[in-house]
Automatic annotation (TrEMBL):
SUPFAM superfamilies: NTF2-like
Organism taxonomic ancestry: unclassified sequences, metagenomes, ecological metagenomes
InterPro entries, alphabetized: NTF2-like_dom_sf
Full protein name: SnoaL-like domain-containing protein
């Protein structure tokens, strides 16, 4: 059934594909979520299959691997990676991490949940040759234009890009998926100046370690590099082989006793099923860094997937993954220095299990650029009078803007 799903999707056989989807399916792909059969199929029809050479429905090749299947009488889950090779005139490589939930209805298996993220890599899936551009586990960056008058620049770009997401006295940042287009009237380096009629922009690439980048640059080029603070981060300023300015940035998470307890703005609990309160309890434990309570909610062989970090299996790995992920956030004595808003709680009962989805917006207080939208998918199983988590998938969701440049 999994192979059939991807075969029909690749061929554009929407009628055959529709037979595999449940009426109440929740489907997440390309950082967009669809609720219900009609919306999911509409989204599928509009998804790109890459270039289409004459006589072919697509230029893509798919490789399914590292698959884990759990199957019972009327319920099944699958977690696997999907290697992608595409391109007719030029090649590229990509990789998706996919979690699917199935239910047998009237002796026919249907997909009731599909979560697909392109943020993670998997060493068990064959990598392409070095000559093939690789989009697996993509990095993020800002593209910055130096400007002479910040307000005048905002007035020019806002009708095209929408209002800036972040504004200071010297800069304005417009979110573009996970990156930013930024205007800056006080550039970080004296070599960055506005020259009329020339391309004056430069990139700021986000990295995990400036020391690693510095070592690699020194091996490649004999260039003048320097580091300096840049907001809540540390930046390394260098020149590439053509003399262009390029900047690498490592965020430095902060801890302050002054940071207030994180808040959660959730839906009204009145009339919600018991699994709703368990879901909010888990979300609260996550944002307050209460790992002991969160770990206790899990079944012994639970799986935790965070597409900003990776995949963890079993309580010990999940605890390590949570602690590592939390190290990347600004913190206080009561948890992450952020406010969290939830919406669109959905649940589906399958015997003694509940498939749950919940949309979340995590607003970072001190560093708004690190805020993100996410779709939380969970499978809870009833054990006696309690519910235990078997699967969790936190997948970051795209920011949607209704602007000429979308």
């Amino acid at each position: 059934m999994i192979e059939a799903y991807h075969r029909h999707w690749l061929d554009g056989s929407n009628e055959e594909l529709s037979k595999l989807l449940d009426d109440q399916i929740v489907r997440f792909r390309s950082e967009n979520v669809s609720y219900g059969f009609t919306n999911a199929l509409k989204r599928i029809k509009n998804e790109s299959r890459g270039e289409r050479p004459p006589g072919y429905a697509s230029s893509m090749q798919l490789e399914i691997g590292d698959m884990q299947i759990h199957s019972e009488k009327n319920f099944s889950t699958a977690l696997y990676s999907l290697g992608i090779r595409g391109g007719a005139r030029w090649e590229y490589s990509d990789l998706a991490t996919i979690f699917q939930v199935f239910q047998k209805i009237d002796d026919t298996w249907k997909i009731i949940g599909h979560i697909e993220s392109f943020r993670l890599d998997n060493s068990k899936i064959n990598k392409p040759p070095d000559s093939v551009p690789n989009r697996r586990a993509p990095f993020t960056f800002d593209f910055v234009y130096p400007v002479k008058d910040i307000q005048r620049a905002i007035d020019f770009y806002s009708p095209l890009l929408g209002p800036p997401d972040i504004v200071t006295t010297t800069s304005a940042s417009f979110r573009v998926r996970d990156s930013y287009f930024e205007l800056d009237s006080e550039p970080i380096d004296e070599r960055i100046v506005v020259i009329n009629g020339r391309a004056n922009g430069y990139g700021i690439i986000n990295v995990n370690s400036l020391s690693d980048i510095k070592d690699k640059i020194k091996d490649l080029l004999d260039v003048n590099i320097k580091t300096k603070p840049c907001g809540d981060a540390e930046c390394l300023i260098a020149e590439d082989s053509s003399g262009n300015i390029v900047i690498f940035r490592e965020y430095k998470p902060t801890y302050s006793l002054q940071n207030k307890k994180p808040t959660i703005q959730s839906l009204n609990e009145f009339g919600q099923p018991p699994v709703f309160s368990k879901t909010i309890e888990a979300v609260n434990a996550w944002i307050t860094n209460d790992y002991s309570s969160l770990i206790d909610m899990h079944a012994n062989k639970a799986v935790w997937i965070d597409d900003a970090f990776g995949v963890a299996q079993g309580k010990q790995q999940i605890e390590q993954a949570l602690k590592s992920r939390w190290e990347s956030f600004d913190m206080g004595p009561n948890g992450i220095n952020a406010d969290l808003v939830t919406k669109n709680f959905q649940t589906r009962n399958i015997g003694d299990r509940h498939l749950v989805t919940l949309e979340m917006f995590i607003k970072m207080r001190t560093n708004p650029k690190r805020s993100f939208n996410a779709v939380l998918t969970q499978v809870w199983k009833r054990e006696g009078l309690d519910l235990k988590l078997e699967h969790t998938f936190i997948a970051q969701k795209r920011y949607i803007k209704d602007t000429p440049v979308g």
